[in-house]
Amino acid sequence: MVQRPKNEAELQEREAIGVIRASRFIRRYAKAHTKISMGTVCRIHREIFSFAWSDIAGTYRGENLEITDSHHHPPHYTEVPGLMENADEELAEKLEAVHMAEGTIRDEVIDEESAVGAIDHVIKTAAWLHHVITYIHPFRDGNGRTARLAANLILERFGLVGISIKVEQQNKNRYRKALAQIDDHGDYEPLVEMMYEGLIERYEGVPMKFYPAKK
Ligand SMILES: Nc1ncnc2c1ncn2[C@@H]1O[C@H](COP(=O)(O)OP(=O)(O)OP(=O)(O)O)[C@@H](O)[C@H]1O
Ligand SMILES: [Mg+2]
Predict the structure, then answer these.
(1) Domain total for the chain?
(2) Residue 137 annotated to the active site
(3) N or C, where is the chain less crowded by C-beta within 10 Å?
């Protein structure tokens, strides 16, 4: 078992390496066409933390915690396995539906309307997975990173590219508010909008017409 480094700098270094590992894992997994489940989400978490903090890597938390600067109280730790199981079933249903969209994007004689709908469906499924992970907060730490990587796995599996959601200092509030908007009102729009922005960046501004209309 790898001990958690005592020194903050070393811990950060190891976590950074873990994120690189996890990104490599999702890229490979996206191509492999093996089932995506909450087990895969645990695997992403394990990739991030096995070197930095192996005690928590890929395992559900055994304690209650609060999220800094958020009014969402993650569920009691005893509820985590059950909630993850339910989410796993919901994920399987959602992915079943996205499979049908996949062919539309790949179709050579592309029907614009269904391609736009298919892309939107993939993005919304990724947004759902991102939020459900942060909402349940199944892990002791690294829930945000795991959620963002898991969302990228969905994007990449269904023919898009992984994105980088802006979570650094000046965008932190917007990101937190977008998640809170789902917690409080079931409104995915702000998070979906951030994901579209990430995609626009990756596609050099090309898919502007997919961008949801601003209210
Ligand atoms: N209101 C909220 N509802 C649900 N999730 C939230 C809310 N506010 C923040 N979060 C999520 O909680 C994450 C922080 O939890 P945690 O410390 O476990 O993740 P992390 O990966 O270590 O953090 P970071 O994302 O800062 O790298 C945020 O990144 C965000 O994804
Ligand atoms: Mg953290």
Answers:
(1) 1
(2) yes
(3) C
